């Protein structure tokens, strides 16, 4: 059942940015490997490539299972709430077994065994909703779903993140039991204190490259290497190093237990040793890491800041007007020619705004099946179908009408996408409040309106991001189809409930945040962004109005 894995010259890109560069790794079967690195080092990306969920731009991943065994890899992501789908715990695990082709007669025993291994008794948990479990129980359920398929390689991404000490200790015990059972384990983590003492191998990532690959024990004692990668050495190693300098410890500990055992055997230090000044090398070892600010952003790769594009620098009022005018013109178009001209114009604007085509494709991909469904629905014409299409209930006029409706809808979404991608929250809201300020004289609470609109516009990208995470988790369960098959009725039904739960939860958090900040729509507010109209904004406004007038004229004569 156990398997080894080898990565050969792996590279991976997000758009044009290198996330992984020339990665070479070899992980032996039955071992536990810790993969660590600061946020943005490429750690999570590498885990997805090793799990087969992302195809590398270059290189390959080679799996070596036992004779006659198919490579079977399972992965558990950091956030359990984005990888639960079914109505109860039994069905949650059964879905993955079904995707792996496990006969129905064998599923119940596998589910019962997997739940027992993670400490969730079948009798108590099988019928419960996975969405109502605690954070630690959700994490253990995700691991149960992963190990029920009997993988040769199990990948865990930040398994102790967000767990209380008791739940984290239970998870460490589970990891040790899985390792003793022969499963090859790769654990992506920042928690070096917990996992380095258990590991056979350690891999340190830095800026998309392998910074260290070797035995785990020497890494814990190499403070300079860890700090050069932005990581803090484990607490037991730091304490052990200081105690060794003071003569309280004979050798460097490789775990907390070793530290405590060493202390119990040592006598008090000699006075001269206790007061010995630090050497320059020791002072360097004790120095804090170069960037110890936990809130400082860390990029996936080393690069200079991108140049600000023309659209990003425009006054948000110009962009608001452009979106409103563009939407009105598009809604008034009833023929193909002006819609195609508008589509070409919007595509050009997206290109000049510096939005990558891969980012654009990822945004529109979830809408494809909906667009197709709307087109087919609009094309139905049972009253007077064409002779050639009558048996399908379609007419050529209906197909054209449906295509125009879908294209119009697509253009409206594209305008919103262009707007939100080039306008951050504060400018967006300040421009809207400026535009609707005259409504205050009518007694309308314009502050509430602007807050609702700005939150809604920024909520859509968040929802699409969560949808992408849910899709990835669903794909990790087994044979998720590619292309349109990914949006089959069953796949959609599995995604709807967890997505709604995430949206409702996010809405509650936003409402709580607004309430906690004492938001009062009757009081004056200090602007968080100062609007500043410049000559380039006048030029842009004139161009927008001219283009809107031209498109309106084309739509009238078509």
Automatic annotation (TrEMBL):
It is found in: Cell membrane; Membrane. It is a peripheral membrane protein; Multi-pass membrane protein. Residues 5-232 form the ABC transporter domain. Coiled coil: none annotated. SUPFAM superfamilies: P-loop containing nucleoside triphosphate hydrolases. Residues 286-296 have a biased composition (Low complexity). Keywords: ATP-binding, Cell membrane, Membrane, Nucleotide-binding, Translocase, Transmembrane, Transmembrane helix, Transport. This is Energy-coupling factor transporter transmembrane protein EcfT. The gene is ecfT_3.
């Amino acid at each position: 059942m156990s398997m080894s894995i080898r990565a050969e010259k792996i590279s991976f890109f997000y758009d044009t940015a290198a996330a992984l560069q020339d990665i070479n790794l070899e992980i032996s079967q039955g071992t536990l490997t810790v993969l660590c690195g600061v946020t943005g080092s490429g750690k999570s990306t590498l885990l997805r490539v090793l799990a087969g969920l992302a195809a590398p731009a270059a290189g390959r991943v080679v799996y070596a299972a036992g004779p006659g065994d198919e490579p079977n890899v399972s992965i558990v992501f950091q956030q359990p709430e984005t990888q639960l789908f079914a109505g109860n715990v039994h069905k949650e695990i059964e879905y993955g077994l079904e995707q792996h082709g496990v006969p129905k007669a064998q599923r119940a025993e596998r589910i019962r065994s997997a739940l027992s291994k993670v400490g969730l008794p079948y009798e108590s948990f099988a019928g419960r909703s996975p969405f109502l479990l605690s954070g630690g129980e959700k994490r253990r359920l995700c691991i149960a779903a992963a190990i029920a398929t009997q993988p040769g390689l199990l990948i865990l991404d930040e398994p102790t993140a967000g767990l209380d000490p008791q739940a984290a200790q239970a998870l460490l015990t589970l990891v040790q039991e899985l390792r003793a059972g022969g499963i090859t384990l790769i654990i992506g983590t920042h928690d070096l204190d917990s996992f380095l003492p258990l590991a056979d191998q350690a891999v340190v990532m830095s800026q998309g490259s392998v910074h260290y690959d070797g035995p785990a024990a020497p890494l814990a004692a190499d403070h300079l290497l860890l700090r050069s990668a932005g990581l803090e050495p484990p607490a037991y190693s730091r304490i052990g190093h200081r105690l060794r300098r003071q003569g309280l410890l004979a050798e460097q500990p490789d775990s907390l237990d070793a530290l405590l055992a060493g202390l119990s055997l040592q006598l008090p230090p000699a006075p001269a040793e206790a007061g010995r000044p630090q050497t320059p090398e020791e002072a360097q070892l004790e120095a804090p890491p170069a960037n110890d600010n936990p809130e400082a952003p860390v990029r996936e790769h080393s690069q200079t800041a991108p140049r600000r594009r023309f659209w990003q620098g425009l006054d948000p009022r110009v962009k608001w007007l452009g979106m409103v005018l563009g939407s009105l013109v598009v809604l008034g178009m009833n023929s193909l020619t002006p819609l195609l001209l508008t589509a070409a114009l919007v595509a050009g604007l997206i290109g000049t705004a510096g939005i990558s085509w891969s980012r654009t494709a990822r945004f529109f991909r979830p809408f494809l099946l909906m667009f197709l469904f709307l087109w087919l629905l609009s094309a139905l014409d049972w009253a007077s179908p064409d002779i050639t299409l009558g048996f399908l209930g379609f007419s050529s006029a209906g197909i054209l009408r449906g295509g125009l409706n879908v294209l119009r809808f697509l253009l409206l979404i594209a305008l919103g996408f262009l707007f939100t991608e080039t306008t951050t929250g504060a400018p967006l809201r300040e421009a809207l409040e400026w535009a609707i300020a005259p409504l205050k004289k009518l007694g309308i609470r314009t502050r509430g309106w602007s807050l609702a609109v700005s939150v809604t516009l920024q909520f859509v990208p968040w929802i699409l991001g969560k949808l992408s995470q849910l899709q990835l988790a669903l794909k990790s369960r087994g044979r998720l189809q590619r292309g349109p098959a990914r949006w089959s009725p069953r796949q959609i039904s599995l995604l709807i409930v967890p997505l709604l739960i995430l949206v409702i939860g996010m809405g509650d958090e936003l409402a709580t945040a607004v309430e906690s900040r004492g938001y009062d729509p009757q009081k004056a507010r200090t602007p968080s962004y100062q609007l500043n109209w410049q000559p380039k904004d006048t030029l842009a406004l004139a161009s927008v109005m001219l283009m809107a007038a031209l498109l309106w004229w084309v739509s009238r004569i078509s």
